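Before relying on records like the one below, remember that each one covers exactly one chain. Contacts with other chains, cofactors or solvent are not represented anywhere in the record.
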Amino acid sequence: MPLEESTRNLIHEYCVRDLPGNIQWHIDKFLFIEDIELRNRLGRAFYSARYTYKLMEATFVQGDEQHPFVKFQIMQYASIYEAVITNLLWGVFKDHAEVLQLQTHKAYKPVNAFGSLTKMQYGDEDLFTCVYRDAKTPKNSIPFKDKVDCAVRIGFLEESYSEDIKRTYELRNLAHIETEANKQLDVEIEQSKHAYWRLAPFLDGVSEYLGNNNA
């Protein structure tokens, strides 16, 4: 059963006391995102990550009890970075030369160059004629680290903290317990703080870059 209402109110007041604003304030940090639904969800993810951190402080959880709070924050921040970068690359910058290059790879395409009467073998295996040409890579198949590097080359993401963003995303993937066990890695409170500290300059940098290039 829930705690008494007075206790619940006390905890909630503690959680929101030091936040810079309500959920709308957090949504407005993403005004450069044209998709209103995505913008709202980004703001909610940002707000919930901050609220969860304050809830962790309020209840003063330690050790294993702290783990789910920290893990949730990492997942929220990594998802924010991923959504913003991907949205901008395939939105504002979809025709940029760097994005076109990012989603292009070389692939072999079979061609019937010598007709059906020609048969070639290498040992016991049949050989087929192919051409080696450019092919489009689905954006979901492109590693996030490559998207980050592309954002750096375009200029809306600072190289100085790009590796930190990649690390946050890598930690997000530890949501799979088997992966976490195999890599013998864990998330800690300092890592979630680091993800938060990088978010402000990231968002400010994006806003400034887009503002300067749209002026």
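The chain has a mean pLDDT of 87.
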